[in-house]
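Quick start: what a row looks like.
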Amino acid sequence: MSARTTAPFRADHVGSLLRPPALKQARTAHAEGSLSDDALRAAEDDAIREAVALQESVGLQAATDGELRRSSWHMDFLYQLDGVSSSKDSSVEVAFRNASGDLTFAAMSLVIDQRIGLSTTIFGDAFSMLASTVSTAVPKLTIPSPSMLHYRLGGAPVHEGSPYSDPDDFWNDLASAYRDEVSRLYAAGVRYLQLDDTSLAYLNDPAQRESMAARGEDADHMHQRYVDTINEVLRDRPSDLRVTTHMCRGNYRSSWAAEGGYDHVAEAVFGGLQVDGFFCEYDDARSGDFSPLRFLPRGDQQVVLGLVTTKTGELEDPDTLKRRIEEATKYVPLEQLCLSPQCGFSSTVEGNDLTPEQQRAKLDLVVSVARDVWG
């Protein structure tokens, strides 16, 4: 079986990479006022060139900018939508956990203070720089899915003081803004776009659904609303724009926020979401088994198995990865499978608990195993 020439690729990756120490120092200096905007941009550019060189040198067919310009994989995007602002008076705390215990991630609350729209192309300049940097790899842009705006609101979009009196108006405006963004990105040269969507994975966790239901939402069916909205965003996309989604259960300093297999959302997502590929977290038991993948139609849609963890630096055994890929073929043909790490290495600026050398070894492993399996 030959390697794929269109995204997603047999060996692929989610997107974010560890921030180099020099870039972290530059960000600190910029926040303290001792480094100019232009100097910070130059430091980011240098780090991105190194990140692209890393990805190409290990043999990846796609390269991102490592999300090195961002503090957060999703909030940096969502705040740039018209009508969305941050609340300095309140924050949302997300509970994370790992083998050592619990920790929380606090972010300023999202506020919808006017109708949602799009005035400028978000991350357009960042993509242009990435596209000018790659030499052998396809430049890949990652953005949060529209679902993430709703999930991070922490409550229903219709409430006292909201610009929306009808929830359908909220969803229509959100889809319209995203559809405009996708069109603008395509015009800027994007041909590989990823919609990162932790919400679709979170909703498999009964505790997450209980939390959503407690604030008056239809938690049992919200994933269908998310799928319908994404499909509306993508309904007019050009045929040569490849779109994937990534679904994980949280990634902050080697910790996670949710647990459970993909069973609750599987039929609607794998059977109905109109994307070219699904990046699925499958690095440990909390991700469930492969049986939900049975809803994937036979055809060109790909499941990218996230079997290599980014939570720790311990390197997986290649033969174990190959056996797990074989196990997945009980539900999905081998030609519809690919391999990747389970998540990014640094979804927020802090990064996960592993070294740059271990990060490279993980990417090397993905490429090596993919070549052994698919050729």
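That is the whole record. Strands lie at 62-63, 82-98, 101-117, 138-139, 141-144, 192-196, 242-247, 277-281, 302-308, 337-341. The first strand starts at residue 62 and ends at 63.
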